[in-house]
Amino acid sequence: MFMDLDASSIRVAAFDRTADLGQVEQLAKFPVALIGDTRGRMGMMDPRIRPITPKPLMFGSILPVWCREGDNLAVHRALEEIRPGDVMVINAMGEVTRAIIGALIAEAAVIHGMAGLVVDGSIRDAEELAELGLPVYARGVSPAGPYKSGPGTVGESVACGSLVCRGGDVIIGDADGLIVLPPSEVAGALTAASAQQDYEETMKTRFRSQGS
Ligand SMILES: O=C([O-])CC(=O)C(=O)O
Ligand SMILES: [Mg+2]
Protein backbone atom coordinates (compact mmCIF):
# COMPACT_ATOMS: atom_id res chain seq x y z
CA MET A 1 0.00 0.00 0.00
CA PHE A 2 1.02 3.57 -0.77
CA MET A 3 0.18 4.45 2.86
CA ASP A 4 0.18 2.08 5.80
CA LEU A 5 -3.53 1.16 5.63
CA ASP A 6 -5.48 -2.05 6.22
CA ALA A 7 -7.32 -2.69 2.95
CA SER A 8 -8.99 -5.97 4.01
CA SER A 9 -12.47 -4.39 3.58
CA ILE A 10 -11.81 -3.78 -0.15
CA ARG A 11 -12.96 -6.54 -2.55
CA VAL A 12 -10.71 -6.87 -5.59
CA ALA A 13 -11.82 -8.59 -8.83
CA ALA A 14 -9.60 -9.55 -11.76
CA PHE A 15 -10.62 -8.54 -15.31
CA ASP A 16 -9.12 -8.68 -18.79
CA ARG A 17 -7.78 -5.64 -20.61
CA THR A 18 -8.44 -6.55 -24.23
CA ALA A 19 -8.57 -3.07 -25.80
CA ASP A 20 -6.04 -2.31 -28.52
CA LEU A 21 -4.88 1.05 -27.14
CA GLY A 22 -3.27 2.00 -30.46
CA GLN A 23 -6.67 1.67 -32.12
CA VAL A 24 -8.34 3.52 -29.22
CA GLU A 25 -5.84 6.35 -29.72
CA GLN A 26 -6.94 6.58 -33.36
CA LEU A 27 -10.61 6.68 -32.30
CA ALA A 28 -9.82 9.39 -29.72
CA LYS A 29 -8.70 11.69 -32.56
CA PHE A 30 -12.42 12.06 -33.38
CA PRO A 31 -14.66 14.26 -31.20
CA VAL A 32 -16.64 12.40 -28.52
CA ALA A 33 -19.80 14.02 -29.93
CA LEU A 34 -19.12 12.56 -33.36
CA ILE A 35 -18.33 9.09 -32.01
CA GLY A 36 -21.58 9.23 -30.04
CA ASP A 37 -23.57 10.24 -33.13
CA THR A 38 -22.53 7.00 -34.84
CA ARG A 39 -23.65 4.95 -31.81
CA GLY A 40 -27.28 6.04 -31.71
CA ARG A 41 -26.18 9.13 -29.71
CA MET A 42 -26.04 6.79 -26.68
CA GLY A 43 -23.27 5.74 -24.27
CA MET A 44 -22.20 9.21 -23.15
CA MET A 45 -21.67 9.93 -19.48
CA ASP A 46 -23.78 12.37 -17.46
CA PRO A 47 -22.32 15.75 -18.56
CA ARG A 48 -22.43 16.99 -14.97
CA ILE A 49 -19.18 15.01 -14.69
CA ARG A 50 -17.08 17.82 -16.17
CA PRO A 51 -13.43 18.28 -17.19
CA ILE A 52 -11.62 19.83 -14.22
CA THR A 53 -8.10 20.14 -15.63
CA PRO A 54 -7.13 22.22 -18.69
CA LYS A 55 -6.12 19.28 -20.94
CA PRO A 56 -9.20 17.01 -21.01
CA LEU A 57 -8.28 14.92 -24.06
CA MET A 58 -8.07 11.38 -22.69
CA PHE A 59 -8.41 7.75 -23.71
CA GLY A 60 -7.80 4.42 -22.04
CA SER A 61 -9.07 1.22 -20.52
CA ILE A 62 -11.29 1.46 -17.45
CA LEU A 63 -10.13 0.43 -13.98
CA PRO A 64 -13.40 0.61 -11.98
CA VAL A 65 -13.43 1.59 -8.31
CA TRP A 66 -16.38 1.87 -5.93
CA CYS A 67 -16.02 3.99 -2.80
CA ARG A 68 -18.30 4.65 0.09
CA GLU A 69 -19.36 8.31 0.21
CA GLY A 70 -16.42 10.42 1.43
CA ASP A 71 -14.06 7.44 1.84
CA ASN A 72 -11.16 6.57 -0.45
CA LEU A 73 -9.62 3.39 0.96
CA ALA A 74 -10.59 1.63 -2.30
CA VAL A 75 -8.63 4.23 -4.31
CA HIS A 76 -5.52 3.47 -2.27
CA ARG A 77 -6.00 -0.25 -2.92
CA ALA A 78 -6.59 0.44 -6.62
CA LEU A 79 -3.10 1.97 -6.97
CA GLU A 80 -1.70 -1.57 -6.88
CA GLU A 81 -3.96 -2.67 -9.77
CA ILE A 82 -3.12 0.11 -12.25
CA ARG A 83 -1.65 -0.92 -15.60
CA PRO A 84 -0.28 1.62 -18.12
CA GLY A 85 -3.15 3.16 -20.09
CA ASP A 86 -5.77 2.64 -17.38
CA VAL A 87 -8.30 5.35 -16.63
CA MET A 88 -9.53 5.09 -13.05
CA VAL A 89 -13.32 5.44 -13.02
CA ILE A 90 -14.57 5.97 -9.48
CA ASN A 91 -18.16 5.65 -8.33
CA ALA A 92 -18.10 7.85 -5.23
CA MET A 93 -21.92 7.73 -5.06
CA GLY A 94 -22.24 11.20 -6.58
CA GLU A 95 -21.32 12.73 -3.21
CA VAL A 96 -19.67 16.12 -3.78
CA THR A 97 -19.20 17.52 -0.28
CA ARG A 98 -16.02 15.50 0.35
CA ALA A 99 -13.22 14.90 -2.18
CA ILE A 100 -12.29 11.30 -2.88
CA ILE A 101 -8.88 11.98 -4.44
CA GLY A 102 -6.30 14.77 -4.59
CA ALA A 103 -2.94 15.49 -6.16
CA LEU A 104 -0.89 13.26 -3.88
CA ILE A 105 -2.67 10.00 -4.69
CA ALA A 106 -3.15 11.11 -8.31
CA GLU A 107 0.61 11.57 -8.70
CA ALA A 108 1.23 8.07 -7.30
CA ALA A 109 -1.34 6.75 -9.80
CA VAL A 110 0.33 8.55 -12.70
CA ILE A 111 3.67 6.98 -11.72
CA HIS A 112 1.91 3.58 -12.03
CA GLY A 113 0.78 4.55 -15.58
CA MET A 114 -2.71 5.98 -15.01
CA ALA A 115 -3.84 7.89 -18.12
CA GLY A 116 -6.84 9.72 -16.67
CA LEU A 117 -9.29 10.01 -13.82
CA VAL A 118 -13.10 10.13 -13.77
CA VAL A 119 -14.98 10.63 -10.50
CA ASP A 120 -18.71 10.49 -9.84
CA GLY A 121 -18.04 12.67 -6.82
CA SER A 122 -15.46 15.35 -5.96
CA ILE A 123 -11.72 15.84 -6.25
CA ARG A 124 -9.48 18.39 -4.50
CA ASP A 125 -6.07 20.01 -5.14
CA ALA A 126 -7.41 21.19 -8.52
CA GLU A 127 -4.43 23.45 -9.32
CA GLU A 128 -1.88 20.76 -8.54
CA LEU A 129 -3.82 18.25 -10.65
CA ALA A 130 -3.66 20.73 -13.54
CA GLU A 131 0.12 21.05 -13.08
CA LEU A 132 0.38 17.25 -13.18
CA GLY A 133 -1.03 17.40 -16.74
CA LEU A 134 -3.53 14.65 -15.88
CA PRO A 135 -6.96 14.68 -17.55
CA VAL A 136 -9.44 14.76 -14.64
CA TYR A 137 -13.23 14.71 -14.83
CA ALA A 138 -15.43 15.03 -11.75
CA ARG A 139 -18.89 16.04 -10.58
CA GLY A 140 -17.43 18.55 -8.13
CA VAL A 141 -14.45 20.04 -6.30
CA SER A 142 -14.27 20.20 -2.50
CA PRO A 143 -11.48 21.06 -0.06
CA ALA A 144 -12.81 18.50 2.47
CA GLY A 145 -10.68 15.36 2.40
CA PRO A 146 -11.69 11.69 2.47
CA TYR A 147 -11.68 9.17 5.30
CA LYS A 148 -9.91 5.84 4.73
CA SER A 149 -11.96 3.10 6.36
CA GLY A 150 -13.68 1.31 3.44
CA PRO A 151 -15.46 -0.72 2.36
CA GLY A 152 -15.26 -0.60 -1.42
CA THR A 153 -14.39 -2.55 -4.55
CA VAL A 154 -11.69 -2.51 -7.23
CA GLY A 155 -12.19 -4.16 -10.64
CA GLU A 156 -15.92 -4.89 -10.31
CA SER A 157 -18.33 -3.10 -12.68
CA VAL A 158 -19.49 0.26 -11.35
CA ALA A 159 -22.10 2.88 -12.15
CA CYS A 160 -20.56 6.22 -13.07
CA GLY A 161 -22.46 9.18 -14.43
CA SER A 162 -25.47 6.97 -15.35
CA LEU A 163 -23.34 4.47 -17.29
CA VAL A 164 -22.28 0.93 -16.45
CA CYS A 165 -18.46 0.87 -16.57
CA ARG A 166 -16.86 -2.58 -16.75
CA GLY A 167 -13.20 -3.30 -16.13
CA GLY A 168 -11.44 -3.11 -19.50
CA ASP A 169 -14.16 -1.05 -21.22
CA VAL A 170 -12.85 1.79 -23.36
CA ILE A 171 -13.36 5.40 -22.29
CA ILE A 172 -12.64 8.52 -24.32
CA GLY A 173 -12.96 12.12 -23.12
CA ASP A 174 -12.62 15.59 -24.61
CA ALA A 175 -13.82 19.10 -23.77
CA ASP A 176 -17.45 18.06 -24.37
CA GLY A 177 -17.41 15.02 -22.07
CA LEU A 178 -17.02 11.26 -21.96
CA ILE A 179 -18.09 8.17 -23.89
CA VAL A 180 -17.75 4.50 -22.90
CA LEU A 181 -17.77 1.50 -25.25
CA PRO A 182 -16.82 -2.18 -25.14
CA PRO A 183 -13.35 -2.96 -26.54
CA SER A 184 -14.91 -5.28 -29.17
CA GLU A 185 -16.68 -2.28 -30.74
CA VAL A 186 -13.66 -0.01 -31.20
CA ALA A 187 -12.78 -1.15 -34.74
CA GLY A 188 -16.38 -0.64 -35.94
CA ALA A 189 -16.57 2.73 -34.18
CA LEU A 190 -13.40 3.83 -35.98
CA THR A 191 -14.89 3.02 -39.41
CA ALA A 192 -18.21 4.69 -38.51
CA ALA A 193 -16.54 7.82 -37.08
CA SER A 194 -14.38 8.20 -40.17
CA ALA A 195 -17.45 7.96 -42.45
CA GLN A 196 -19.37 10.44 -40.27
CA GLN A 197 -16.49 12.91 -40.38
CA ASP A 198 -16.31 12.64 -44.18
CA TYR A 199 -20.05 13.34 -44.33
CA GLU A 200 -19.70 16.39 -42.05
CA GLU A 201 -16.77 17.72 -44.12
CA THR A 202 -18.85 17.37 -47.30
CA MET A 203 -21.69 19.30 -45.63
CA LYS A 204 -19.31 22.08 -44.50
CA THR A 205 -17.80 22.39 -47.98
CA ARG A 206 -21.30 22.66 -49.45
CA PHE A 207 -22.39 25.36 -46.92
CA ARG A 208 -19.24 27.36 -47.58
CA SER A 209 -19.55 27.20 -51.36
CA GLN A 210 -23.21 28.26 -51.12
CA GLY A 211 -22.26 31.13 -48.79
CA SER A 212 -19.58 32.58 -51.08
O1 LIG B 1 -5.72 13.24 1.37
C1 LIG B 1 -6.30 12.52 0.55
O2 LIG B 1 -6.64 11.34 0.76
C2 LIG B 1 -6.70 13.09 -0.77
C3 LIG B 1 -5.75 14.13 -1.19
O3 LIG B 1 -5.92 15.30 -0.92
C4 LIG B 1 -4.55 13.73 -1.95
O4 LIG B 1 -4.44 12.60 -2.39
O5 LIG B 1 -3.71 14.62 -2.18
MG1 LIG C 1 -4.02 16.49 -1.17
Ligands and ions found: oxaloacetate ion, magnesium ion
Order of helices and strands: EHHEEHEEHEHEEEEEEH
Low-confidence stretches: none
Give me the Rg, rounded. 18 Å
CATH C-level label = Alpha Beta
Tell me the structural class: alpha/beta
Going by CATH, the homologous superfamily would be Ribonuclease E inhibitor RraA/RraA-like
Q: Give me the count of strands.
A: 12
Globally, the shape reads elongated
Number of helices: 6
DSSP strand content: 25-35%
In whole angstroms, the N-to-C terminal distance is: 64 Å
Helix share bin: 25-40%
**CATH architecture level-2 label:** 3-Layer(bba) Sandwich
* Number of structural units classed as domains: 1
Write the CATH fold name.
Glucose Oxidase, domain 1
Give the mean pLDDT: 97
Main sheet summary? 10 strands, mixed
Question: How would you characterize this protein structure?
Answer:
- This protein has one domain: Glucose Oxidase, domain 1 (3-Layer(bba) Sandwich).
- Helices cover 29% and strands 27% of the residues.
- α1 runs parallel beside α6.
- The strands form 2 sheets. Strands 1, 2, 3, 4, 5, 6, 7, 8, 11 and 12 form a 10-stranded mixed beta sheet that branches. A two-stranded antiparallel ribbon has the order 9-10.
- The chain is an alpha/beta fold and 212 residues long.
- The model has no long low-confidence stretch (mean pLDDT 97).
- Oxaloacetate ion (OAA) is lined by residues 72, 101-105, 124-125, 145-146.
- Its cofactor is a divalent metal cation.
- This is Putative 4-hydroxy-4-methyl-2-oxoglutarate aldolase.
